[in-house]
Amino acid sequence: MSSTSADGQSVVVTQSAADKALDLLSGEGLDTDVAGLRLFVQQGGCAGLSYGMRFDNEPEDGDTVSEHHGLRVFVDSASERYVHGSTLDFEDGLQGAGFHVENPNAESECGCGESFRT
After folding, report:
1. Across residues 101-111, what is the average pLDDT?
2. Which residues form the Core domain (predicted)?
3. Taking the mean position of all CA atoms in its chain, how far away is CA 75?
4. Where does 30-95 show beta strands of DSSP type E?
5. 111: pLDDT strictly greater than 90
6. Cα–Cα distance measured from residue 115 to residue 101, given in angstroms and rounded to the nearest whole number
7. Domain boundaries in the chain?
8. Which of 81, 95, 115, 117 is least surrounded by CB atoms within 10 angstroms?
9. Average pLDDT, the chain
10. How far apart are CA 117 and CA 71, in angstroms?
C-alpha cells in the first residue's frame, strides 16, 4: 500500500463530499477509521471510460491512500493515472444529488458527465 502526502494528494475531496461519504459509511456500519471510499476508473460509458465508487473495508495492496476531512480514499494503481489531480465533490441541487469528479486529465466528457476520454 502506498500513500500520498498532503502536498501531493492523488485526489482532492471537498468537505461536502467527505461529509456525505462519511454519513453513508457510518450508515453501512463500517469503521471510518479503517474503511473508506474507493474511486476507480473502468471501461464503459459513451465516452469510453467511466468513474466508479464503492465502499471498501480496507485498502488493497498497491492502493494510493489519502485522507480528506476524516474520509479515507483508496485509488488503485491502474486508476491513479486517470484520476490524479481530480476533485471529488458532492452536489445537492434541483437537478438531483450525487458525487461528481472534476478531472483535469479528461479531454472530453459525455453530456451527463458520467464518462470521459483522455
Report:
1. 74
2. 13-114
3. 7
4. 36-43, 49-56, 64-68, 71-75, 86-93
5. no
6. 10
7. 2-117
8. 95
9. 84
10. 27
CB of 30 within 8 A of CB of 55?
Answer: yes
pLDDT computed for residue 55 by the predictor: 96
Fold exhibited by the domain 2-117: Hypothetical Protein Aq_1857; Chain: A; (2.60.300)
Strand, helix or coil for residue 20: helix
Compute the distance between CA of residue 87 and CA of residue 24 in angstroms, rounded to an integer. 19
Place of cell 479515507: 72
Alpha helices in 1-116 (DSSP H): 15-27, 77-83
- Does the pLDDT of residue 82 top 70, yes or no? yes
Residue 72, C-alpha cell as written in the block: 479515507
